[in-house]
């Protein structure tokens, strides 16, 4: 069998931790009951497992279990938060603030609301990818109902100042939603201390299974109203109908439990590896770091490389390393990344960018191999340009 490329695309998804899989398996076969079946043991077993996961997740972000609503992932959680608030608070105002560098799972629901007559402010970011808090404050109007700012960016890893943003939202009585798909299990999240009203989570970025996530919805000080987006059997307090996916929920809880237990050692280890790769690449002329130097996820490195063609670079690295480039492929087109464009990059430079996403299974040997191979590829492409 030919050797598989080194996996450095952990922002896209992560492998399921074997301990997570082990915890999940009995819930496919033995304990397969529907957690809503209240009349027999099968239902009680499933319900007990769901309860345990809900408590683990709630503890992880400092909320109560009742405030956790399971969804199919962060895309659904973001849609539920944004459209659900828009519909519920329609009479109080129709202005929403978000940021140009958000994930499409936030930007697209906002654009959809725009088509219904809502006004959306898309805040720019500074050169380092952070938002300008003064500008944020100035953008709030009496009819602003919601602010949506992600915790950690999925391309450049930048960590927005959630606590400061939360304070501004509290001052102006605006609801604060944050997409924490990339942040959960990697940075401390505390919805009380950060004054967050809605928080989107997903399992598959932290060694949990795909297809499961959650939305935290604050129930007091203030109680947040959400208009359901999926109607049906009334599960999850009627906010999100559909039979609960017990094995995935069990896996989500286990993944969070493991992530929190390992957070400090793993962050430190990944940061050291990341910094080593960063140093090697930035030593080359015309290689620039994207995003803030320190306010960043420990496993993230995103660089732009001058003087080369992005497509040729990716082609040169294929088979060596699995990573993402500065382009976003939709079903029909390949566009330069909107995040890198928001940093002020030209299309060409955005295309000639690489996102390295380190994870807990990344080894130092892999990082050294990748560093050397990326440098070789850049140098040979530049050489070919000269000749
Ligand atoms: C910041 C961010 N938000 C939302 C999502 C979507 O999450 P999910 O795949 O759970 O729907 C992702 C994953 O790509 C992400 O990185």
Description:
The protein is α/β, with parallel strands linked by helices and 387 residues long. The chain has two domains: 6-13 and 263-386, Aspartate Aminotransferase, domain 1 (Alpha-Beta Complex), CATH 3.90.1150; 19-257, Aspartate Aminotransferase, domain 2, CATH 3.40.640. It contains eleven helices and 15 strands. Helix 1 packs antiparallel against helix 7 and helix 3 runs parallel beside helix 4. It starts with 5 loop residues before the first strand and ends with a helix. Pyridoxal-5'-phosphate (PLP) is lined by residues 73-75, 103, 105, 150, 154, 179, 181-182, 202, 213.
Summary?
This protein has 387 residues and is of the alpha/beta class. The chain is built from eleven helices and 15 strands.
Topology:
Layout: E1 6-7, H1 18-24, H2 41-61, E2 68-71, H3 74-88, E3 95-99, H4 104-115, E4 119-123, H5 133-139, E5 144-148, H6 162-172, E6 175-179, E7 198-202, E8 213-217, H7 246-282, E9 287-289, E10 300-305, H8 310-317, E11 321-322, E12 324-325, E13 327-329, E14 334-336, H9 338-342, H10 347-351, E15 353-357, H11 364-386
The chain binds pyridoxal-5'-phosphate (PLP).
- Give a short account of the largest sheet: 7 strands, mixed
Sheet with the most strands: spatial strand order: 2-8-7-6-5-3-4
In total, the number of strands is 15
Low-confidence stretches: none
N-C termini distance: 36 Å
Q: CATH superfamily of the largest domain, please?
A: Type I PLP-dependent aspartate aminotransferase-like (Major domain)
The percent range for strand residues is: 15-25%
The share of residues in helices is: 25-40%
Bound molecules: pyridoxal-5'-phosphate
**Overall CATH architecture of the largest domain:** 3-Layer(aba) Sandwich
H/E element sequence: EHHEHEHEHEHEEEHEEHEEEEHHEH
- How many individual domains? 2
């Amino acid at each position: 069998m030919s050797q598989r490329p080194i996996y450095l695309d952990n922002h896209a998804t992560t492998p399921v931790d074997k301990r997570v899989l082990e915890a999940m398996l009995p819930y496919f076969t033995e304990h397969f009951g529907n957690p809503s079946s209240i009349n027999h043991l099968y239902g009680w077993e499933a319900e007990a497992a769901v309860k345990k996961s809900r408590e683990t997740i709630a503890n992880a972000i400092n909320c109560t279990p009742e405030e956790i609503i399971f969804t199919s992932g962060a895309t659904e959680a973001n849609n539920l938060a944004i459209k659900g608030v828009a519909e519920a608070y329609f009479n109080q105002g129709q202005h929403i603030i978000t940021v140009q560098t958000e994930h499409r799972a936030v930007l697209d629901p906002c654009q959809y609301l725009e088509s219904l007559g809502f006004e959306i402010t898309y805040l720019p970011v500074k050169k380092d990818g952070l938002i300008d808090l003064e500008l944020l404050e100035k953008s709030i109007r009496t009819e602003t109902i919601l602010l949506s700012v992600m915790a950690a960016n999925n391309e450049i890893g930048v960590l927005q100042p959630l606590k400061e943003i939360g304070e501004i939202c509290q001052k102006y009585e605006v609801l604060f939603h944050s997409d924490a798909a990339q942040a959960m299990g990697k940075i401390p999240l505390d919805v009380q201390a950060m004054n967050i009203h809605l928080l989107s989570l997903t399992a598959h970025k932290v060694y949990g299974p795909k297809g499961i996530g959650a939305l935290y919805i604050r129930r007091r000080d203030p109680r947040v109203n959400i208009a359901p987006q999926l109607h049906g059997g009334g599960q999850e307090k009627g906010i999100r109908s559909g039979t609960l996916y017990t094995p995935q929920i069990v896996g989500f809880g286990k993944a969070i439990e493991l992530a929190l237990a390992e957070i400090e050692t793993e962050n430190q280890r990944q940061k050291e590896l990341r910094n080593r790769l960063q140093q090697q690449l930035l030593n080359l002329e015309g290689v620039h770091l994207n995003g803030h130097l320190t306010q960043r996820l420990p496993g993230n490195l995103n660089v732009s490389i001058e003087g080369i063609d992005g497509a040729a670079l990716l082609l040169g690295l294929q088979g060596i390393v699995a990573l993402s480039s500065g382009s976003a492929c939709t079903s029909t087109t390949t566009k330069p990344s909107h995040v890198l464009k928001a940093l002020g990059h030209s299309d060409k430079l955005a295309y000639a960018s690489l996102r390295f996403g380190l994870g807990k299974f990344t080894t130092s040997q892999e990082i050294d191999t990748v560093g050397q191979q990326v440098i070789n590829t850049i140098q040979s492409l530049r050489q070919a340009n000269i000749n």
